[in-house]
Amino acid sequence: MGLNCLDQKTTEEFYTRYFGFSRARVVNLGDSEIVFLRKGDAYLELFAAGTNEPARTAHDDGPQAPGRMRHLAFQTESVDAFLAEIGDAADVTLGPLDFDDFICGWRTVWLRDPDGVIVEVSQGYEDDRSHEGSHDKDGA
After folding, report:
1. Beta 2-5 vs 72-75: how paired, if at all?
2. Residue 46 forms beta bridges with which residues?
């Protein structure tokens, strides 16, 4: 996932401190750079924003228009412990909400990162195992 950042250092600190990413590489482009963050098989590419003009502010669980990313999603052991750790840095946009009607123990909160991207943090989500091994007719 590539993110445009008003301040790459602030965004890097947010994702390394609260989500466990670490710096994997920096590519110097002369007048700017791309910072690659990694956590397992997931990468965030942090680009310097091409403009200081802020995007439209996202609310709740993120933009719902086609062609726009709705939100990033991460798992945690405890939403409440995560919120206690992040403290005042949490700009909560929705929740925490419980989804026990779907999965017992599923709880989620949405917050805004330093650049306004909505980030979902959930505990207790589990895949529906009845879908394991099922593919569409093309085998995808």
Report:
1. unpaired
2. 3, 35
pTM comes to 0.79
Residue 97 CB: number of other CB atoms within 10 A? 13
* The Cα angle at residue 82 between residues 76 and 85, in degrees rounded to 5: 145
Could you report the per-residue pLDDT of 48-78, keeping only the tens digit for each?
887 776 666 777 766 666 566 788 999 999 9
Question: Cis omega (within 30 of 0) on the bond before 96?
Answer: yes
Whole-number Å distance between alpha carbons of 82 and 99: 18
Cα(65)–Cα(71) distance, integer angstroms: 12
Q: How many CB atoms lie within 10 A of CB 99?
A: 15
